[in-house]
Design goal:
The protein is of the alpha/beta class. It folds into three domains: about 1-140, Response regulator (Rossmann fold), CATH 3.40.50; about 155-295, 2-Layer Sandwich (Alpha-Beta Plaits); about 320-560, TIM Barrel (Alpha-Beta Barrel). About 50% of the residues lie in helices and about 20% in strands. The strands form three sheets. Strands 11-12-14-15-16-17-18-19 form an eight-stranded mixed barrel, surrounded by four helices.
Length: about 575
């Protein structure tokens, strides 16, 4: 083990220098380039892109605080909120002596004041921060999983890289094995049964690897990674494994799925190889019996498609390929439904790929830290549209926009939203903000603090997708909200299911207790409309009134109401 670590010390590590001043970047680059490979970024947004591109190999970030677009504090918050990125140590660089404590509170590992007049001190601090971070990973990441005796994931990757160095020509397969619905097995059968199942799987994997150079680890609660010499088929192995599991635990309902990346490409990182195997495993999720799948051309094309969307987001924003559509919300508390507001919804009209579903790019951008770019585009478009309607129809139609988790962590959020409404001559109460229920439960104290600030500025905040998260009634009573948006899954079957209708009635009772209106999403039929109106729902949104439409079609809805 010590020999492996000693050899890795000779690998040149990467350091990212982030500063909006060219001269500062050059000075720091000259200081550290003798020992490290240096990357450069001139602001926080550019830095975040480079960090995500190099997250597996980046050893340290030298970060200025005062920068345009995304400053150092904002970048620190984003890094600390991401379990994978927070492992990268950050040394803050600034001429503000008072910023030292705040930087450390935001997660910085060290602090170097400007100007840079002692290069040897800077190099010493860089070396020490990298060593401490790497030692921390090795100390906290135990080599073996206590329950199964297999490696832990960091050590599997570590030894896998060593294997590739010593056996570069050996064809290897990356496998991900997952137990279907393991969380339900644990809940229904008990933790002791679940542990027995995990040990049984580990025993079978060890049997499979006996006499080979293969490696395996337990990854997360119910997943296993296996790295072994290439095989032509895994069908017999998987079938035998399923039988042994049933014999060992006495339960025929236990099933597993296997994702295989055959002849793994060694020009990409071992982490990426297992990501591909995991894609193949995830693709089997809808199959509840024991099954397996390969990372193939279809999955590869999907990966390339996603990569294309990620690479083209900036060009798409610049050329206005993204369009904002508006779905009306109608107040139904009176005798006649009245247009009350609208929700802004993004669409992507790609010049080659056609209309791209939001379901294809929004989750992708959320997982890659790009959703903020899209959110800000929508925010500005929606505010401009409210002003246009105000000027044209002499009427304010508030529009709700989504505020994502990553937006909440941005220290400039409040300032940016106030600037948007002010520059369009709007009042904050004419601009609605949607925050999902799951965001409230993710980091409730920070979310609540941020939302309270926004509400004190005059913004109205709607809790989106209410009922899909895990907020307790006790927590709900303390949350700062102005409306509940009921998840559309509650509405879908109310016309045919008394149980679903009763759930809707309970949500309406909760809202009345909290003294906030309820917005029902996904209303499609006259029967759903009447049931909700009779139950006391306040506002309705859905195809019953209108699909999301472009602004020119929404104008007709306004005219119809004025007739």
């Amino acid at each position: 083990m010590q020999e492996i670590l000693r050899r890795e010390k000779n690998i040149q590590r990467k350091v990212l220098v982030v500063d909006d001043e060219l001269v500062n970047r050059q000075i720091l680059g000259n200081i550290v380039s003798c020992d490290y490979t240096v990357l450069y970024a001139e602001d926080g947004e550019q830095a975040l892109e480079l960090i995500r591109q190099n997250e597996k190999t980046l050893s340290l970030i030298l970060l200025d605080l005062l920068m345009p677009r995304l400053d150092g504090y904002g970048l620190l918050e984003i890094l600390q909120a991401d379990p994978e990125l927070k492992r990268i140590p950050v040394i803050v660089l600034t001429s503000e002596r008072d910023a030292e404590v705040k930087s450390l509170q935001y997660g910085a590992a060290d602090f170097i004041p400007k100007p840079y007049d002692l290069p040897e001190v800077i190099l010493a601090r860089v070396r020490r921060s990298i060593e401490l971070a790497e030692d921390h990973i090795m100390i906290t990441g135990a080599e073996k999983d206590e329950l199964t005796g297999l490696y832990t994931k960091p050590f599997l990757f570590h030894y896998g890289r060593q294997h590739d160095r010593f056996c570069p020509d050996m064809q290897m397969d990356a496998l991900v094995l997952n137990i279907n619905r393991f969380h339900l097995i644990n809940e229904l059968q008990g933790r002791q049964f679940g542990d027995k199942l995990l040990k049984t799987i580990a025993d079978h994997i060890n049997e499979l690897l006996k006499g080979t150079d293969g490696l395996a680890c337990r990854c997360d609660a119910d997943s296993f990674y296996i790295y072994l010499a290439h095989r032509e088929s895994y069908e017999d192995i998987l079938s035998d494994a399923a039988k042994k599991f049933v014999e060992a635990v006495g339960n025929t309902k236990v099933s597993i799925r296997l994702g295989i990346y055959p002849n793994a490409n060694k020009s990409i990182s071992i982490e990426q190889r297992f990501d591909r195997a995991n894609m193949a495993c995830t693709a089997q999720r809808a199959v509840f019996q024991t099954s397996y799948g390969y990372y193939d051309d279809e999955l590869h094309n999907k990966e390339l498609y996603n990569a294309r969307l990620i690479n083209e987001i900036d060009e798409a924003l610049e050329t206005r390929q993204f369009k904002v559509f508006y779905q009306p919300k109608y107040n139904i508390t009176g005798d006649k439904p009245c247009l009350a507001s609208a929700e802004a919804l993004i669409r992507w009209q790609h010049p080659e790929l056609g209309m791209i579903s939001p379901g294809a790019f929004i989750p992708l951008f959320e997982s890659n830290g790009l959703i903020q770019k899209l959110d800000r585009f929508v925010w500005r478009e929606a505010a401009a549209q409210i002003k246009t309607w105000k000027d044209r129809f002499d009427r304010v139609i508030p529009v709700s926009v989504n505020v994502s988790r990553i937006d909440i962590y941005d220290p400039e959020l409040e300032h940016e939203l106030l600037e948007i409404v002010s520059s369009n001559g709007l009042k904050p109460e004419e601009y609605l903000l949607e925050v999902t229920e799951s965001a409230y439960t993710d980091n409730s104290s920070q979310i609540i603090e941020t939302v309270e600030k926004l509400r004190s500025d005059g913004f109205r905040v709607e809790m989106d997708d209410f009922g899909s998260g895990y907020s307790s009634l006790n927590m709900l009573a303390a949350l700062p909200i102005d409306a509940l948006k009921m998840d559309m899954r509650f509405v879908k079957n109310i016309a045919t299911s008394d149980k679903d209708m009763r759930m809707v009635e309970l949500i309406l009772e909760i809202a009345r207790y909290l003294k906030v209106p309820v917005i029902a999403e996904g209303v499609e039929s006259q029967e759903q409309y009447e049931l909700l109106k009779n139950a006391g729902c306040d506002i309705i949104q859905g195809y019953y009134f209108s699909h999301p439409v472009p602004p020119e079609e929404f104008n007709e809805l306004i005219r119809q109401e004025e007739e």
